[in-house]
Amino acid sequence: MKKIKKLIPLFISLLVFVLTLVLTKTGVFSFLELKNYDSRMKFTSRFRTRSDDVILILVNQDSIDEASEKYGWSWPWPRSAWGDIFQFMDKGKAASCTYDILFTEPSIYDSEDDDVFANKLASGENTKSYIAQFWNGKKNDSVKITKPIEELQKAAFFISNTTSIEDSDGIIRRSRIQDVVNGENLVYMAFAPVIEDEDFEERIPAEYDKKAGTKAVKLTFKSGIDYYPRYSAMEVLQSIDSIEAGEEPFLEPENFENAHVFVMYYAPGLFDICSSPMSKVYPGAGIAITGLDNYLTGDFMRTVPGWINILVLLAVCFAGVYLSVFSSKQKSSLKIVLSNVFFFILGVMLIWASAYGLFLAKWDLLFLSPLAAFILSFLSNAAVDYFMEGKQKRFIKSAFSQYLSPAVIDSLITNPDALKLGGEKRNITIFFSDVQSFTTLSEKLSPEELTSLLNVYLSTMTDIILSSGGTIDKYEGDAIIAFWNAPADIPGHSAIALKAAVKCQEKLAQMEKFFEDMVGRPMWTRMGINTGDAVVGNMGSEKRFDYTMFGDSVNLASRLEGINKQFGTYLICSENTKNQAQEWGTDLFFRELGKVQVVGKTEAVQIFEPMTPDQADSKKSDLENFAKGLSLFYEGNLAEAEKVFAACKDDAPSVRYAEKCRELISSGTACNGIWIASSK
């Protein structure tokens, strides 16, 4: 059975791997992968560096308005204006000047306008001109290529293609490189200016696109076209006018030396719109600009080989399962939960970081598939573990949650074999409590009322004890017996136990009105606390046993609870408890109550009354007088001690000491500074 159990994580890993691999291959994650691709592109775009050799000339609305005002041009402009822009770039020795404008119809002005434009293109000496054409993307009988007018075809250095590739969701993430259509080589606009480079093919990580029937390359977008140096067409035309007039131009032709210039429409309603990872409304020319930029900077995105994606998928399946297995082996429920949360978040973040980090390094690794595989494998193993082992854990938790602290329950859940007879010696802090005059109080209540009262009282006190890590040993009527530091280690258990006891007293004070309405008076509870070695463990018979404690330290804690009656106090602890608590840095104040010889003991023990700093401040005068009286009592000076104690009429321990002094003086008994308890 154990061998089969060990194989379950392996089986889950392989099952999830096969499932996610099938889902990946059948395209279930495709849409989400594309959307995450866009998210990664936007996230990493801010870290990309653009090429300084790509410059844009924009025909924006301001240019159209200024041209109308200055030159009297209506739209479209005379084509001679485009020729002027080209000659300006040629004078500045730009590497290329690409027009993302379709000149498919003759000029509306006259035929000479087309001839002027063509002549200016043909006269270029330093700059190559590129004119756009449109292809409908078909390679069958329905193929259609819309070319520029014949004059411009002859004059331009090259006719480039503007047709893009859209993914299934209508977004352009890749670029064509070149297509052969009806024997004609159609080079995409982005690569026309560099197609003749000797290492052109080596610099482009092309991948064959089955749907498009051509080679394509993934583009790396860089925060949109506004990221590139750009000028308005009117700024260029005005600079030409300034140079001709012998004036200082806004732009010098030399500004464009060796640059690849794109002339494009940028006024509303003029430029073609597409969708890219950066925006649903993206200028079509931006795709070509990005492609050329990627070529110049070497920033094309590369797809991780398929076998690597498969290995990653397999690895995350095993990681998800075995991280869950590791978490389930923690020693407590809290640690199991925290470990599960930590490793789950860690796994997700590592997958995220790997995908985004590699993307920044220009490698496209699948993200949604590995993420789904990790989540499914992690949760699947956790679910199997819950159903296989959860039944036993739920039984233990249900059976003991009302008696044991969460730490103890977690210890038993992790190690169920601890549910057997046996004990061990441990240093623990023991707590005994008892309600003052509960017998008299209970006689005034009906059985139903008494039960209700006890349920409220015991539940309130128990919640505080358990939440602090204490273990409820047993209830004896209204009495509560508890201890700390067993079976689980609780560092500073003495300080924690004292804090819990003080909190119990504070809670009773807050519930004073509730108890007065219920029984006609507050519930005053006496508590005794001692720290020492005791035997703890499961005690009883083979069929019925309790996790309990016994030893002299336990008996002393019980006596300290009872000694409250003689001092008029409600919380007393031993010197051991006080010393250990102070070593752990408790902020409680301890009033020394005296040296007491409890019933059944021959040696006196020093006892203290713990109280909060605020309580100590409010009783500062009484505490100082009490300490003075106690010192006199230790010296055996009963007469002087009685006077000091008697002056503190509102302090119960002072009143009791004054009575004890008068009693000893009256009986003629010598005082050795020890208070001998008369009852338990």
Describe the protein in words.
The protein is of the alpha/beta class and 680 residues long. 48% of the residues lie in helices and 20% in strands. It contains 22 helices and 25 strands. The strands form six sheets. Strands 17, 18, 19, 20, 21, 22, 23, 24 and 25 form a nine-stranded mixed β-sheet that branches. Strands 1, 2, 3, 4, 5, 11 and 12 form a seven-stranded mixed β-sheet that branches. A three-stranded antiparallel β-sheet has the order 6-10-9. Strand 13 and strand 14 (279-283) form a beta hairpin. It is elongated. The two termini are 56 Å apart. The model has no long low-confidence stretch (mean pLDDT 89).
Compile the SSE list and pairings.
Elements: H1 2-25, H2 30-45, E1 54-59, H3 61-70, H4 79-91, E2 96-99, H5 111-122, E3 128-135, E4 145-146, H6 150-155, E5 158-161, E6 174-176, E7 178-181, E8 184-187, E9 207-209, E10 214-218, E11 230-232, H7 233-244, E12 260-265, E13 273-276, E14 279-283, H8 285-297, E15 302-303, H9 306-328, H10 333-360, E16 363-364, H11 368-400, H12 406-414, E17 422-435, H13 438-442, H14 447-467, E18 471-476, E19 479-484, H15 493-510, H16 512-519, E20 525-540, E21 545-550, H17 552-567, E22 571-574, H18 575-583, E23 589-597, E24 605-611, H19 613-618, H20 620-635, H21 638-646, H22 652-667, E25 674-676
Parallel strand pairs: 1-11, 1-12, 2-3, 2-12, 3-5, 15-16, 20-22, 23-25
Antiparallel strand pairs: 3-4, 6-10, 7-8, 9-10, 13-14, 17-19, 17-20, 18-19, 20-21, 22-24, 23-24
Helix pairs in contact: 1-9, 1-11, 2-10, 4-5, 4-7, 9-10, 9-11, 10-11, 11-12, 14-15, 15-18, 20-21, 20-22, 21-22
